[in-house]
Predict the structure.
Amino acid sequence: MSKKQIACSVLDLAAVTEGSTPEYSFKKSLKLAQYAENLGYTRYWLAEHHNIAGIASAATSVLIGYIAGGTKTIRVGSGGIMLPNHSSLIIAEQFGTLGCLYPGRIDLGIGRAPGTDQLTAMVIRRNSNLGAEDFPQQVIELKTYFSKENSTAKVRAIPGEDVDMPIWILGSSTDSAHLAAYFGMPYAFAGHFAPAQMQTAFGIYKNEFRPSEQASQPYIMACVNTIAADTDEEANYLATSAYQAFLGIIRNKRQLLQPPVKNMADLWNEAEKTQVLQMLAGSFIGSASTIQKNIQAFVAQTGVDELMFNAHMYDFDAKMHSYKLMSEVMRREF
């Protein structure tokens, strides 16, 4: 197999660190986006999450506009919008507006999960009957609203109609792989928190892919955790903030992103450690040379076209340095 250069992108959750505020998180997100743009990253995506103390990207469309307005060339989008939480028309209008304001720079990644706990999902969807089972129909609706052929319909997305809006299907299991393949859409997998079915999902997507106007061939992006530092020891230390965040998920005790610690054994038991490390199996932690070897093996195994990096780190300067090191790693061919 001939080698190729793999595109690299950024996933941002607008993490709120201990002792900080969402306002400061947004300013850090913009600074990171500008930095990523200068480093040559392809896209900068933000994810819809609700009722999570350490994540401030709930109003995803609003935040995308803020980031796009403060950058010049990098693509900005959603990784993703949790479509059953919303009317398809409203999302078409919101992203149609973004597409008009920043033409050729906006991506719409959509998923079927609620992006929150069950109680919060019920509050969000209180007056809606939409659920995961409606996701395929909502995808069809979105594609229709963005099409110029919808100009004679009784319900139109204005703005939105005939706006160039690449739509991605996001998944964390095999379900959405079938859907992305059926519609001939690019596919992004959430390997940063649910890596178990990633390889199987990629196989399904490739085998079942049907060419479309949007994509003539399969296009796969894997989102993975990356914590790069000058040494393996430092990277492993910085990674303990992410470990604590996932430990909070397991214990249903979510909090602001915590500073790294020297010894996780003081915080988790063996069963919890095993569960956290399983959830974070799609992670690359270490020095640039260590990560380069591991990414090379990962790309060879998965055949991905693009990697999106999530760096759940407490120290912002260390986070910036991590993305710099990753940009250097990704300049080579895999």
